[in-house]
Amino acid sequence: MADKVTWNFGEFLSARSVAGETIIELAKKYPNVWGITADQGGALKQFKKDFPERFIDVGIAEQNLSGIAAGLALEGNIPFIFGMIPFMSMRACEQNRTAICYQDLPVRFIGTGGGLTSGAGSTHNAMEDIGIMKSLVNMTVLSIGDPNMVRDIMLLSMTYPHPLYLRLAQGKQDRMLYEPGKYEFKVGMGLIAREGKDVTIFAHGEMVFEALEAANLLKEDGIDTRVVDMYSIKPLDKDLLFKCIKETGNILVLEDHLMDCGLASVISDACMDEGIYPRKFKRLGIPQIYAGFGSGEQLRKKYGYDKTAAAAAVKDMLK
Amino acid sequence: MADPKEVKRLQALAYDMRKKLITLTGYYEGIVHIGGDLSVTDLLIALYHYGMKVDPKNIKAPDRDRFLLSKGHAAVSMYMAMTLRGYFDYDTLMKTYGRLDSAFGEHPCKIQLPGVECSTGSLGQGLAIAVGMTFSARMKKEKHRVFCMMGDGETCEGEVWEAVNTAGSYKLGNLVGIVDRNKQMMTSFDGDYMNLEPYGDRWRAFNWNVIELDGHDMASIVDAIDQIPPITNPKPTVLIAHTTKGKGVSYMEHEINWHAGSLSKEDTEKALADIEANYAKLGGGK
User: Fold this and answer.
1) Which residue does chain A place closest to B146, by CA atoms?
2) ipTM, 2 dp
3) Across the interface, do A71 and B135 touch by the CB < 8 Å criterion?
4) CA-CA distance, A59 to A270, in Å (whole number)?
């Protein structure tokens, strides 16, 4: 499987297709795995042929879908909801809370189009999802950039007894970051994607690649940048956070999400609560704005949270 | 046709349940959703004591019928019907209902109260969950039914019709909806602002099998339950039970103020006298 995949850093792979292949692998092994969608199940194209009795498409009705997921899970099943993030997180928000989280049911949300990557404008952009999902009691929030990680996380989810939200980036063209099989991923853990001693950039999702690019830019100026893939946003890897604060002093949080209710907020909450403060702290992400149209790359540049902006922010911080 | 002896037995249980609900409402300092509780009393008795295959001694039995109370604010009526069936202890229910750390809350919580199939209370959500449970039963080739009781008011919610659409489309014959059609919401009567008619046609249009009944006539309820087709039926079934909010208590019926309330000693006595008189009219009583 994954260890046989040819792999090159930074190459594109579709996270959706990894998810689509993985759910087939899981369904073969586990008779209680379901793939369900509200007319957003492109990744389930093969699954629905192989496992028609465990596939449900309810049409465009996300609230209903989350309710059905709860019903399936109440009967001992593990439903994977496939969909676009804004509708799964906002249209079905109360169902996610009351039908799923209140009853602490093992429903998996596989959401595509994280941040401003949809290209479809503000109706389809996903800027609030982490803020919404992390506020639901019992919900776990992971944000995944490297498409191969999706498989690892879906595999580990089979023994995870709580609701789990998996935020993917665009889902069609996602950059590979880690050699498959090299790292073990866990709920509540982060990963040092690049070592460094002057500053740490915390990122999640596709912004990890952007952070690594920023680190390369900073290297030219003699700045040694650590990059942490904080894929587990709730629960947060506080040990890793405080270790990085201790070792690099300065921290920058870079994310494709509203910057006042995503990872940066989680990190600043943790610092305040524990009384462990970075030397300097800076956050870059989506400001309070409906971003409009354009590609993810164009919008990151426009709103000042791409690699160039990140490198500039680090330099400013180290002045 | 319903067996008259069985109808008598169920009527006696419903009478007992009404008295106990009124007693609890009088005893409890807070408010109780007594209007809706009384409109589903006969239905819940018929379901828990006649229509559903359940065993209070084996609440996890895989072949048990599942019951979801989508109108979660009628929780106490479900607790009471279940108590009379042997699930819970009556004194504990009476003494702890609605209080700190009680398992018997104002809305049912499955984590706190084993025997409850699903936590509910936010209206309009139950049917979709029941649909999910029904899909599971069908995939596993289980023979039980999934029953979901809704208030007619909550069927103003869009999610209900999304679930109705799914159940009709997927031909979920093992799903039974029950609508407490009391034609009264919290603050208005059907027709004051929102008009739900033609109600049965709405369900029929989504390919449901519709059975209409008098939700306070025990023979009518038993007949309706008997008419539910086998689970292989290509349509889900909905029982539209015509009911009256506050049924059995003269000063509550057709009164908008009795969605929820508390009872003084005098209110309690008058309500109990009404229930006694109604039961006597059925040929029951002392």
Assistant:
1) A71
2) 0.96
3) yes
4) 41
